[in-house]
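Q: I'm writing a short explainer about Lamin-like protein for a general audience and would like to include a description of its predicted shape. Could you first generate the structure from this sequence?
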Amino acid sequence: MPQYMCSNCDTELPFDHALCISGCRLHFGPCSGIQESSWRKGDKSSWKCLSCRKTPNLKDQKPVTAEELREFMLTLNEKLKPIQQIETINETVQELQKSMDFMSGQYDSLLLKVHDMEVERREQNGKIQELKTIMEEKDNSIKTLQARVRECEQYARNRNIEISGLEFSESENLHDIMNNIAQKINVQYCSEDIDIMHRVPSRRKEEPPKVIVQFTTRSVRNHWLKNKKYDTITSDMVTGGRANTTVYLNSHLTQEWKHLLWAAKQKLRPIGYKFVWFSESKIYAKKNEKDRNVIIISSQEDIDKIE
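A: Of course. Here's the predicted structure. Afterward I'll give you a sentence or two in plain language.
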C-alpha cells in the first residue's frame, strides 16, 4: 500500500487518509482538523478540505447580463472620472510648466536685451556728454571769434563819427556844415583833420541820410565827441535849411553794437540807469553822475544778468 504525505504537515499518513475531491486534489490527515468520528461517518468520496470549502462554486453563480455589465461599466467610469480629471490636470500642469519654461526663457532673453540696451545707453550718454563738451568749447570759441570780429569791425571805425538829423540839400557843402557845427560846440575846425566825409542812406525814408565823418586821428574824433554836449544844435542852425530837427553826434557803431546799445537802454532806463553810453568797444551804464558803480556790457548775456 503506497504511503501518502499529508499536504498540511508533510508527514506520512499511516491510516486511511482523506482526499480532497475539489480543485486541489491533495491528501490530508488528522492535522487538517478532521475528527475521526466525522471521517468515519462521512462520505469519503465527496470530502473537501477547508480551503476548497471556502472557495465559491462557480457553478452556483449566475451569468452576468449585458445590462449588468453596462451598469458596471458606467459605475466604473464614474469612479474613474476623478482619476481622468487628475490626468487632465496633470496634462494642464505640464502645459503650464512648458509655458512657464518658455516665458522664463523669454524673460531671461529680455533681461539680457535690457542689459545690452543699458550698456549701449550708457555708452551713448558718454558720447553725448563728450559731444556736449565739444559743442560748448566750440560755442565758446565761436563767441570769442565773434567778439574779436566785432571789435575789429568797430576798431576800423574808431576815427569816425555819425551825424544824424541834418537836413539834406543837393547843393550842400559838408565842409561848411562841419565848420558851423564846430563853432556851435567850441571846436577848432580844420579841413585837414578830415579824411573822408559823406552821407549814407537812412533805414527810415522819413529821416535824412546820415553823415559819416572819418577824422585823421582818434584824438580829434574824441575831442569832437567830448564837446558835443556843450550846446544843443538843430539842423537849421548849421545847414541854413528850414528843418529844426535836433542834430546828434555819435560814435560810428556797427549794426551789432547799435542793437546792443539799444537793448541796454531798453533794459536799464526803466530800472533807474540814467546814463547808458558807448566808448572804446564797450557799453557803460550808471544810475547818476555820482554813481561809481559803473556797469560794463560786452554782450547780450551781460544785459540779461542785470536785475
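A: For your explainer, you could say: Residues 18-60 form one domain.
Q: Perfect, that's easy to follow.
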